[in-house]
Input
Amino acid sequence: MKTINQFLLSLLALIVLSCGSDKHDFPLDKRYWDVKDYDNAARELRFGYEKDEQLPMFDNPESRIIVEKLTDHQNYKVVLDDDELGLKYRNNIAEKFFEEWKGMTKIYLARDRKDQYLYEKELLAVRHFGLGLQIKYFDLGNQQIIKNSDDPNSSETKRVVNSNIKTLVNNYLNYLDQINNEESFTASGQKILGQGIEKYFNELIDHYPDADYTGLVNKAELLLKKSKSTDIQQPLQKLITRLDAKQSSKSY
Output
């Protein structure tokens, strides 16, 4: 009987220790996460949590660091901005990061019974991560196309490069689709959504000033009429004004 009691006590202690430990494993001690870290982290966040278990949030002091690491742009920049690394290698890494990001967009989509996003800050941080990443990704891809072309100035090379830029701009339009769901964001979330337009769309235009933004202007104008949030309307109007001015300057 004594042996059985000791065994039960030992088993109980093991259960208590297991329940008290963090069952989710993230490489938080690493300065930068690589593609493999993202693959593991995204899989854990998508499938490793119970339905009633809270995902890592910026507002949770205990789990905040996980979201910060997940959405840290330096994780991809440290590789993609390193000119000492080969162009082909960086293209490969950029493509893998892009694929990981597409999976990340499915993590924080949950809404409550009132259709409000449960993780609006995290959802938008993931979207912003993708906006920044894609400029690097498409730029490196175009650099590789030009490098591998017999004639970088040929009409075919320019056609492919411009086609990639058009795809990038269209991908950015997907971010604006969030405005159709602006009522699912709080006032704070709407402000963050607008800040994303202000920051990343201006970066896009700075990087590709001669791209065709006709579709972007048309969509922005429609959403400007639809939106009821001044925090979204203001950056949309600034975006439209900048692109209209750019188009007018080309006309002269």
